[in-house]
Specification:
This protein has 361 residues and is α/β, with parallel strands linked by helices. The chain is built from 10 helices and 13 strands. The radius of gyration is 20 Å and the shape is globular.
């Protein structure tokens, strides 16, 4: 089935962003320039007469979240339907995922109105779960699709990270400001009658597994900053090690009972959370640079796109054209909680192909 992505019109190199915001502190410049990120798509604050960028109010940031999110989300969903050879009227369920702003009604209602989807389209908004939420949303969407065979469900991740920035020159905010980019990504999910796959060109979703690390609850958080009158995102420096140390356990749980070992997994699609996060997961799972090539490529070209990052990487894998019949893949996202989410995919065909598996992407 199809996927689709969208980003804002303008992208910036890390060097350009340092100049735009006139950042001279060598420690902060080093964070930007050693991030393994080359460019990010962003909607920057308005420019003042003296060339500086205006500090947006929380209200202005929320308005940016709404406007940019609707625009990107609509384009991503339309691209997804085109790739799935489906039409707007085919959509029966829409799940929207976002963590870069808060509003009611959410993106699901706004996108239904924007694109003129059927008014009886079922919907769900997954809000505030962070970078791992794409797989939380996918679990809900595949569950709905399985309960409604033959009907098309869409998961749409909409992250206007430009609407979640605080600029105060501290290392806390600078780490966040060096990392995130804007983007939206959608995936279509459908089950055939009786749970059989309705199409044969995409993978089945075989299983999900989760891991929450309560002792790291405060390691990644998006909370209110009284000093600035805004929401502010915080990343603890220990995040890469916390995620890496728990990656093996959750993958083991994902593969338990399937007859598969880690070495049987042909394709790894891991959230582009940051250079250190990727390295930590790679080391703990004994993965190669080749295994995470799309993860690092998306980080390089877009930065951390929050919940939709893994779909950008999945898109690259499909475009690469290297997936063979019967192969398996693992999707992995991580975020606040601290949480690791995983999903096991199987492409149709091959000696081990079986009817009656779950939905396909």
């Amino acid at each position: 089935m199809g996927t689709g992505t969208a980003v804002p019109a303008f992208s910036y190199s890390q060097e350009e962003l340092l100049e735009v915001f006139r950042i001279e502190d060598p420690r902060i410049r080093s964070v930007f320039l050693n991030s393994a990120i080359e460019r990010r798509f962003l909607t920057l604050p308005p420019e003042e007469a003296d060339g500086t960028r205006r500090l947006e109010t929380q209200g202005e940031l929320l308005a940016k979240h709404r406007a940019s999110g609707i625009e990107m989300g609509a384009r991503a969903l339309q691209a997804c339907l085109k790739n799935a050879d489906a039409d707007l009227e085919d959509v029966r369920y829409l799940c929207c995922v976002s963590s870069t702003g808060f509003m009611t009604p959410g993106f699901s209602a706004l996108i239904i109105r924007e694109l003129g989807l059927e008014h009886n389209t079922s919907r769900l908004d997954v809000v505030g779960m962070g970078c791992n939420a794409g797989l939380n949303g996918l679990a809900a969407v595949t569950g709905w699709a399985h309960a409604h065979p033959g009907q098309l469900a869409i998961m749409l991740c909409v992250e206007a990270c430009s609407a979640a920035y605080v600029f105060d020159g501290t290392m806390r905010t600078s780490v966040v400001n060096s990392l995130f980019g804007d983007g939206a990504a959608a995936v279509a999910v459908q089950a055939g009658p009786g749970g059989h796959s309705a199409h044969h060109d995409g993978p089945s979703v075989v299983k999900f597994a989760s891991c929450i690390i309560p002792e790291a609850l405060e390691a990644m958080r998006y909370d209110w900053d009284d000093d600035h009158g805004k929401f502010s995102f915080f990343l603890d420096r220990e995040v890469p090690y916390v995620v890496g140390a728990n990656a093996e356990e959750v993958v083991g749980r994902l593969l338990a009972g399937t007859g598969l070992k880690r070495e049987d997994i042909a394709h790894w699609i891991i959230h582009s959370g940051g250079k250190k996060v990727i390295d930590s997961v790679m080391i703990n799972l004994a993965l190669s640079r080749w295994d995470v090539r799309h993860t690092t490529g998306v980080l390089r070209d877009y930065g951390n796109l929050s919940s939709g990052s893994f779909l950008f990487s999945y898109n690259r894998l499909i475009d690469e054209g290297v997936v063979a019949p019967g192969e398996h893949g693992v999707l992995m996202t991580m975020g606040p909680g601290s949480t690791i989410e995983t999903a096991l995919l199987r492409w149709p065909g091959g000696e081990n192909a079986r009817d009656g598996q779950l939905r396909e992407l």
